[in-house]
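Recall that a protein's primary structure is simply its ordered list of amino acids. Everything else, from secondary elements to tertiary packing, is in principle encoded there. The following example makes that idea concrete.
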Amino acid sequence: MVDSSPDNVATLALATYSRLKFKPPDGQFTILAAFVLRTPKKLKLISLGTGSKCLPAARLPLSGDALHDSHAEVLARRGAIRWFLEEIGRCCSASADYVSPWITRDDDGIFSLHDDVVLDMYISTVPSSFQDPDMAALKDSSRPSEVTPNATSRGRDNYSLYGVMRTKPGRADSPPTLSMSCSDKIASWNVLGIQGALASHLLRPVYITRIIIGEVESSKRETVEADCIKPPYRLNEPSIVFTSVPFAHSRFCLGPNVVSGCNDSLCFISDSPRESEVLINGFRRGVPPKRQHMSKFRPVLSKLSLYALYAEIAERAGIPVAQCETYHLAKCAASGYQTAKKALKGPGGPFEGWVTSGEKWERFDLSGTLIGEDGPCR
């Protein structure tokens, strides 16, 4: 039997992080998140991310080749999606007789976790916990804008209110974004699964069994009531546990030496041809602007990279999926996922008012070429 205690899962994540030789500059903190598959006999870290930055709405790329949101939790989740797609590809490879200990192919050709496999998520700091005390007091003493039911608040506005969806970032002097807070995103994954729309063509919903959290100051747990969600989607309620294993580059470990959050983000995908890379402003660090849009320099977790991988793996797996012209239409073709998403985030849903970037930033084909005009999901 393997030691699957929260401390041991945290230690595995931190050991993987240390091996990658990434270190924020002196005086800067970061957040670390990871996804770990677990059976009674083994643990496997499949993805890891660090970071606390996201792009302003005015700087979002149209061709899908940069990350909108480089927070640790989001990068770790996108890395897990890539790992699952690549694992499906390994299972379907004609050159090797590979049997995955983690996923299995069901009679209808769709993949799912083995019965004895569960998924843990490790986060070094509880999402939205690092609110500056002075800013929190100022927000609570000032008159906040009115928040209507199922509306979204910006950053730390209405900070004392529970159950309010929020966009990033928390700082009031930062440019507005179209990225929802990580706590809201995790809550949505507990209904829709972590696999997202594209991978749902190939993989049944994958839910988090346990969330393991490091340092804690305060926590606002998101609650969702989703009686209208239909199988195979469901309301998942992971256990939330804590670990005392310290993360050396957290704000809390650095203490008074903290100046700011690190601008760089680290991504890691286990067993992948390009296991790790460092991002800044949504692109790979060190790549000059004139090369950022070339396929070999594109971040492996960008929408365009995941779209290309999805198309390749779907063809290799022989799974009939809609032949869609754009990334947006490929997502819309995942009808079961979209129905569950609409029940959660659409009119009358518990997450009504969810902010999305929309089709404008998803009208690209596999080459990154923009196709058509803005419009509703067709």
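The chain has one domain: 6-361. Residues 140 and 160 are 6 Å apart (CA to CA).
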